[in-house]
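Students often ask why we bother predicting the structure of a whole assembly rather than each chain alone. The short answer is interfaces. A chain on its own may look different once its partners are present, and contacts between molecules only exist in the joint model. In this exercise we take two input lines together and write out one structure for the complete complex. Read the inputs first and try to guess which parts will touch.
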Amino acid sequence: MILRIFLNIFILTSILFFPWWITLGIVLILLAIYNAYEVIVWGVFADALYSIPLVEFFNIQFIFTITFVLLLVISSFLKKKVIFYNS
Amino acid sequence: MKMNFRPQNRLGKRRVIKKVVFILLLIFLLFIVNMFFSNPFSKLANWVASPIWSAKQTSFNEVGNFTSLLRSKKSLYKENKALREQLIEVEYLFISNSALELENNSLKELLNRELDKDTVLATVLSRPNASPYDTLVIDTGYMDGIQIGDSVLAYGDFVIGRISNVYSNSSQVKLFSSPGEKTAVIIGTEDVPAIAEGVGAGNFSIKIPRDTTVIQDDIIVLPNINLQVFGVVEHIITSPADSFKTILFKNPVNINHLKWVEVLQSK
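Now the answer. The structure tokens for the assembled complex follow.
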């Protein structure tokens, strides 16, 4: 639980101060350890802070949220398939 | 022959389906929100983030002041000497630039053009590498008279973007280099009009007809009565099979190291 809180604080810090790929890395670590639904909230928070409509992203302003939701789905799916999490 | 099959967990499957449906609904909801409201949670997020950014800015300044006291005298002496030499060169350049600016302004005033510009100094709270959107967050908002669409300048004459969102004490800046962002510019002494397209991280590309005269180090400016430097031509890619040539350049200012910017207030 302490690790989960620590990782969440680290995600908040990295959203505010570090490059986006570091945030992505910490989210991946958190999702590898826990079924962390809070990443959706972090995604919404990051999008609310930085997003603007860009042609490159088809004017979608929820790139962080969508990425984190997809990562959450993939991680929960993989956890069921990988023997490491079942043992 | 008796065969053993792995028992299927129907409850588990149902739970997965429920999860997938929930997530699809969530994404669908986000799309709907995106269609009708532009970034609905931005005010709340900025309200949370602004004090943290300001605290970091203050503490880093304090730490920076403290560590400068710990540096050796020898290294300080060397740096001081190098900076003095640099300062003399810059002073001469500044004098000639000021004279030219004065002459330029008086000529424009002769033609009855207004030249006074109201700028507000702002600290950069968040740099573009924090997100793939290529935006800056600065510490001035509508309380300081900032409006959406105001130009943002770095080091006086280098224009880097426009205000895209304004909050009470902070604003979001959309950089001209944001991917897909198109800006009308003028290139070089021949005043070639073109459209610069942002490709992210302070980089741009321009496509112009191959026969147009543009050379390396040509200055690219915004079409404006006041000088607003946009960039300097760095690479020109031409191909005999292509009737266009591609100009590649980046912002002369390193946006990832910017501490302050000026916001040019529109009247």
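Check your guess against this: The mean pLDDT of chain A is 85.
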